[in-house]
């Protein structure tokens, strides 16, 4: 099937360019053992986030939606020694697994997981001296709040920063203006917000692979 061929290509790319290592394998195994849903980014997508952070020379990274810390490991590995990743997670059980995974990966000193609803945690981060501005924000939580997360990302970044939003294609459902799915309506509202925001210069690309047909939006903060 088409999905089988997408999987085969992801496997090919991953083996050559984004091979797993002990910490990444352990993070996925611990996440599965704890009953977390298998919805982390694919390995080659994690590597893509890692490369974006490297290209940005990111010293401060904000992630919204930690799950078991798989994407956080990829992102935090791009940080310099004095860099910092803050990741926000609503579910305390997910956050516990993520903290242990980050610690196991040797990233306990640079990566911090904060528990709570992101919309409650973000205003506190804004008031916290030295937390921002973030060089890169990765949005991957409850999709219904994507417009709010992009607004917050704008407040917590600087000109030149990068905002990445995951799962913006949703098997093509993003084009369905009559959708009643809050993830779709939230994503569409986010697209319109980004399109109408002069401080953002953005595009979105579709992706296929082990995660099916989806895509991500990338926005550069202009000023
Ligand atoms: N970024 C992760 C990765 O690739 O490894 C995957 C994140 S998963 C798709 C989404 C996560 O967002 C879940 O762990 C979920 O509990 C969390 N979440 C849902 N609603 C949230 C909210 N309001 N605030 C913070 N996190 C939330």
UniProtKB/TrEMBL annotation:
It holds the Pfam family Methyltransf_3. The keyword DNA-binding does not apply. PROSITE patterns: SAM_OMT_I. CDD domains: AdoMet_MTases. SUPFAM superfamilies: S-adenosyl-L-methionine-dependent methyltransferases. Keywords: Methyltransferase, S-adenosyl-L-methionine, Transferase. PANTHER family: CAFFEOYL-COA O-METHYLTRANSFERASE 3-RELATED, O-METHYLTRANSFERASE-RELATED. This is O-methyltransferase.
């Amino acid at each position: 099937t088409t999905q089988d061929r997408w999987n085969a290509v992801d496997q090919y790319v991953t083996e050559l360019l984004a091979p797993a290592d002990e910490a990444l394998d352990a993070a996925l195994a611990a996440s599965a053992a704890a009953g977390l849903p298998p919805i982390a980014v694919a390995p080659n997508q994690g590597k893509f986030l890692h490369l974006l952070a490297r290209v940005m020379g990111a010293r401060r990274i904000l992630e919204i939606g930690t799950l078991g810390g798989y994407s956080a490991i990829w992102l935090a590995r791009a940080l310099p020694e004095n860099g910092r990743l803050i990741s926000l997670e609503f579910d305390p059980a997910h956050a516990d697994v993520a903290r242990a995974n980050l610690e196991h990966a040797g990233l306990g000193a640079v990566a911090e997981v904060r528990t709570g609803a992101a919309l409650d945690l973000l205003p506190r981060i804004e008031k916290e001296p030295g937390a921002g501005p973030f060089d890169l924000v990765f949005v991957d939580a409850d999709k219904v709040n994507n417009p709010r997360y992009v607004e917050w990302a704008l407040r917590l970044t600087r000109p030149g920063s990068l905002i990445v939003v995951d799962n913006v294609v949703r098997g093509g459902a993003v084009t369905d203006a009559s959708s009643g799915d809050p993830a779709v309506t939230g994503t569409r509202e986010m697209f319109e917000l980004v399109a109408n925001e002069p401080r953002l210069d953005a595009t979105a690309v579709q992706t296929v692979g082990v995660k099916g047909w989806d895509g991500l939006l990338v926005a550069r903060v202009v000023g």
